[in-house]
Amino acid sequence: MNNTLKENMARSIFMMAAALSIVAVLIICIFIFSNGVPAIKEVGLFHFLFGISWDPEHGLYGIFPMIIGTLVVTAGALVFGVPLGILCAVFLVFYCPKKLRPKVNVIVNMMAGIPSVVYGFFGLVVLVPFIQTMTRTNGMGVLSASILLAVMILPTIISVSQTALSSVDKSYYEGARALGASHDRTVFKVMLPAAKSGILCAVILGLGRAVGETMAVMMVAGNQAIIPFGIFSGTRTLTSHIAMEMGYATDLHRQALIATAVVLFGFILIMNGIMTLVKRRMCHE
Amino acid sequence: MNKEIHIQKTVEIAKKKKKKSTHSIASVLVWASALLVVAVGIGIVIYIMIQGVPYLNSSLFEWNYSSENVSMLPALINTIFMLILSLLIALPIGIAGSIYLVEYAKKSNPFIRIVNLMIDTLSGIPSIVYGLFGSLFFVKFFGMGLSLLSGALTLSIMILPIIMNTTQEALREVPMSMREGSYGLGAGKLHTILHVVLPSSLGGIISGAILAAGRIFGESAALIFTAGTLAAVSGNIMDPARTMAVHLYALSQEGLYIHETYASSAVLIIVVLIMNGLAGLIKKCSERNTIHG
Q: Which homologous superfamily is A63-284 in?
């Protein structure tokens, strides 16, 4: 009797611990949404999302520049990071000598471990001055942020695509080679397309990391709350927008920042949704 | 058998032919991009080390931070406090939750799917949103103020996905026969879990905990609005605490102490890399043990 009681108690404790992750997500949603939505109501959804000026002193709360900033910087990071990451994954799976592979993977894992402030600091002392002297602009802007983010999402893209590529059935490779296709042709025309859902997962994960990155972007993007007008123009992303002004914001200003987090949250939830869909499709294939 | 040898020979001949052929554009491209990635990775670490390590001196490790010594010791100690506190909160919850998902819940139970979906969602939330949530929930709603405790609670939610994913994986790797053997000897379910399953999955769990610790060490965005930026050793858990990553951010924003900033980031990189290396090593060792044992 005593034993059954103990077993049942343990079972319910374990279950409560597992349920805690659901509770955490719910509480985060409730707190962010309940604090942010009133501000969106007060400003007006349209004015909040598509207002082009952010000027809390004059009661203007438009986050459109930050949305565009996030999209542009993220797109830039993908332009640099995705081809490089996929090619590197292809190298690791199909071109790399066996002895070299673990060593390259150690370096990729190392890159994944470097904290984002360190990336930011590196960007600030190396990348920004470099772009400054090359282009005679102040160096902080879309391009710096995109390059830095590309480096930061590389490990994610490489390791996930690597898994996808190496889980493609080996018979595909042998079949294509038997039909007379060269190694390169087989890899790029057969193996790469066969792993496309996994690689899509890698890109979406990288995208998520790029959208959510705060500190590193904040340190190199210049942070002007304007719609970027070129690749050297300063820009501000949703994340750095929150981080920059949260320290001193009060009242509606503060609520508007939380509302910005609501928008960011929406972005992330949409991406998670796409991710789940892609994964499900992968299972059906 | 003959056929196999024949195929092998053909493959070898084909390989030799390939080696003789000039490098194609594709292979050059692939090699070049891998080289670039490796160069960037190594370049960043070596650059920071070269610029930072020579400036590591005793004044950087003085007990009290001042604008003269720019000591990183308070931040380092706070980070260790933060690490211990977050792991103390997140590890029991994460391990217990994973035990339920792997050992108790039936595979078809939708609860497993929901919890894992929530874990995925948690791991996708940007750290600044955690920071914002922490400042609304722990700092304001529960009135904990900017403190070590608010920061640790926020971080413990953030690292929960890492711990639950690695623990679930480690528990699944324990062979069914070990559990059945334990039941056969008359042990109850709880006894089996605590004395048979958990000990043999310890390696995986520890490596997950160390990964989480690395994440805590490098986290800044979630801590600025929950643990504050006061550069002093915090005496108790309700004191504000500046951790290493926040310290590094603060220094680089001030822009006055460039050598000290390099030195601090070198320390940060070294610690995080050691942690990640350790996590990998422990995981590898425990995998080898389960295969042989």
A: MetI-like (1.10.3720.10)
